[in-house]
Amino acid sequence: MLEEISEHECFNGVQGFYRHDSKVIGLPMRFSVYHPPQEDHEAVPVLFYLAGLTCTEETFMIKAGAQRWAAQHGVMLVAPDTSPRNTGIPDEDKDWEVGTAASFYLDATQPPWRERFRMESYIVQELTEIVFSQFNADSTAVGIFGHSMGGHGALTLALRHPSVFRSVSAFAPIAAPTRCPWGTKAFTQYLGEDRSAWEEHDASELMKRRTTPFPQGILIDQGLDDKFLRQQLLPEAFEAACDQARQPLTLRRHEHYDHSYYFVSTFMQDHIAFHRGILRP
């Protein structure tokens, strides 16, 4: 059963926050939805947004300024929480880089994480079904985007589930997690020591095996004053993989912009228009 936590009028649409008992996770999960005004009379395209480390299902809806543009383009926005919470795993919230709010949007295979940390299955199987069954959403017009860890999740889930997601973009994604400290730390705990398992959740490695998986292009924005750029994000690795895969990529590098939601909100209009143009041309 879907529980409404709150709903708020917003740009002639509705900003909603919801909770449900997840069968995949085995615990209550929260997510947020912006319902554009067009949803009252037609099934609308859907954009799933994945937030980054330390965030919740509220972060994007509060900070990104996306509702204005979603209302203009008639696009539903859906943002899940960034991980299961209150799982009973010892010290699950002790380290901000692993555990609570740091799921990396994959299905963990290693104890103690594997029972509850199943975010890939949760998003692709359960949350999409809830959205399609409970709201006036067009299941044939679905895109995904995200920021930082969520940008990683957007790219990898799109590449792993192209039958679900027709469009993909990202803000400052962790583009090559097998090569950076954040990814190495999280993947070791969630997936074990086998690096071949890590590559299945690395957008740059996944892209190397494809040939033009998204022919209408991928959009990435990256701030050049982002303190995580050189050590953690590595967009040049994904850029090289796209060249190899003949994947059209627009990678925009912006002077003076950092890793914050001030950066994300600046280019939000472009991303929603990008997805709308693909999902409902």
Any overview of this molecule?
- It is built from eleven helices and nine strands.
- It has a nine-stranded mixed beta sheet, with helices on both faces.
- With 281 residues, it is α/β, with parallel strands linked by helices.
- The chain is globular, with a radius of gyration of 17 Å.
- β1 and β2 form a beta hairpin.
- Helices cover 34% and strands 23% of the residues.
- The longest helix has 16 residues, at 119-134.
- Global outline: globular
Low-confidence stretches: none
Largest sheet: 9 strands, mixed
**Mean pLDDT reading:** 98
Structural class call reads: alpha/beta
Q: What share of the residues does DSSP label as strand, in percent? A: 15-25%
Using only C-alpha atoms, the radius of gyration works out to 17 Å
The helix count comes to 11
C-alpha end-to-end distance:
34 Å
Order of helices and strands: EEEEHHEHEHEHHHEHHEHH
For the biggest β-sheet, the strand order reads 1-2-3-5-4-6-7-8-9
What level of helicity do the residues show? 25-40%
Care to count the β-strands?
9
